[in-house]
UniProtKB/TrEMBL annotation:
Alphabetized SUPFAM superfamilies for the sequence: Agglutinin HPA-like (SSF141086)
Gene3D superfamilies attached to this UniProt entry: 2.60.40.2080
Domain of life where this protein originates: Eukaryota
Alphabetized InterPro entries for the sequence: H-type_lectin_dom_sf
Protein name: Uncharacterized protein
Organism field: Ditylum brightwellii
Amino acid sequence: EWVSYIVVESGRYILEGDIVVEAGIASTTIIHRGGQPFSGHPVQFQGGFSSTPAVLHSLVTHNNNDFMASMITNVGTSGFSVAMEAAGSGKNSASEDAGWIAFSPKTGSTSSTSFVIGIGNDGTNDGVTNSPHVIDLTGNFNGAPDVVVSVYNPRGWDGSWARGAGIWTMNKQTVYAEEDQVSDNERGHLDELFAWAAFLAETDLVATA
């Protein structure tokens, strides 16, 4: 498998292309399990966003030495809530740290890179046995970019996380809202919101402020 990643030092910055970005690490002891409503620890941005940002997230610790994912809910212009996502796995953890990056949604280019940052859903179910969500990158890249995608303000109480769905080109990235198969074998999932950020491969993001 291929893994794309973005590294941002904790803090708030304005990047080339007038991209507003804020990043940090949040600790949480709250676990979402399949079938339960969502909750989380509140995280406040240092500064507000003019519109709802695209927030990418992933656990950066592995304290339980077992499966666990990250989850964010209640995303708004001033902050969000963070928790662990166990889905139907039955796994536990006393606490984990989640790294997060919030970008202002924007498409454009600079002298050194092109970028597509956004949030969205397509109105159709996104599970592995459904049709994947398609992120349109047409006209922005000359080769397959680095793309990072997260489930965003989840709707499906079974729990899910984003994973590539097989197409990764300069024109599109497909993605599933993947579920576990611990308590049952079905992998269908509701239509979810996704957040994504795509940059030219090996881009250095330069802060202007």
